[in-house]
Write a structure and sequence with these properties.
The protein is α/β, with parallel strands linked by helices. It has helices at 5-8, 14-27, 46-57, 70-84, 98-110, 125-133, 153-159, 182-195, 251-263, 270-279, 285-305, 329-338, 363-384, and strands spanning 33-34, 93-96, 116-120, 137-141, 164-170, 198-202, 227-232, 245-248, 308-309, 317-321, 341-342, 344-345, 354-358. The strands form 3 sheets. A 7-stranded mixed sheet has the order 2-8-7-6-5-3-4, with helices on both faces. Belongs to the class-I pyridoxal-phosphate-dependent aminotransferase family.
Length: 385
Amino acid sequence: MEFSTKIESLQPSATIELNSKALELQNKGYEIVRLTAGEPDFDTPQPIINAAYQAMKEGKTKYTDNKGIKELRQKIAQYINKKYSTNYNENNVIVTNGGKQALFNSLFLITNPGDEIIVIDPSWVSYDAQIRMVGGIPVHVKTTKENNYIPEKKHLEKAITKKTKAIIINSPNNPTGVVYDKEFLSFISKLSIDHDFIILSDEVYDALVYDGDYTSMANFEESRDRTIFINSFSKTWSMTGWRVGYTIANEKIITQMAKIQSHSTSNVNTPSQYAALKALEIDNSYMVKEFKKRRDYLYAEFIKLGLTFHKPKGAFYYFIDISKYGLNDKEFCEKLLDYGLAVVPGSAFFSDGHIRLSFAASMNDLQKAVEILRKFLTDLETENV
């Protein structure tokens, strides 16, 4: 039996694969601290759960407009307008099965065979795969920790060709936790106009920022018509399993995207849409406060351990350079798992010699993780003497 060569060439999501392996070990009775998945450990707020339950009791369990219920699209537009001083309405919004479908639909819509999509590395595991799935060519622009993982302008300009269709911007960034400043995003905005390409702005962590001000690509009116804004309820309100994301763009883009959704998934789970409607009223500041506390705890401990890393300003990850320890990142992660700590190799994010560690875990688990790391690094040093 022959399968699509595009699909056969893909690798499974490394973050999901490693999380599954860690879960399997836990189910066999091993004590494993899992810092692999990008998933808040908080329970979904009770009012959100109640809203879904109420919707089901009221019989709101049927098909909806495949773009999403009008009330939710209106409220998303109002939420973003208030946050970023935009002027969107419900016709600029489509509700999707998580941020992942929002990205896939966007790429599927804009990409013709051979089109190039610029990706800034380290990059989320699914960008490259999704670009290839829709027949595009990912063009990776490397960054370094010395530059705080912000790409040099000359490298971005060099990556642009006549085939460039879009660039993916992810801020706050997964896996580095970098938050791009206004100056850099303004440069991207101008670049997109000068070279006539689309900006896919993945901002699913925009409500998890710990230091300084946050600038969205939606803030730049001059490039707003060529910007596809992607977001999700998953990280902000701990709703990963509810699978509700959304895309905001000009009406022409949304109309075309609705055709994709009508022939693929139709509408998002109906009770989940009513849950998301309630979520937009819920203050998540207690989560942000706790994530910042965890980030700061690990920062102090990682300094003591002599680790090399960039302090994250947003999201909930540390991206740590482990190249000095004489192991490649996959070997490092495999050996670390033997000690009871599961993390993700940086090569999954197109950055060898690093590991990604999520601090979306309890303080108790983070304390255990620090102790495991301390013992592991001590043993490595002893082996290398």
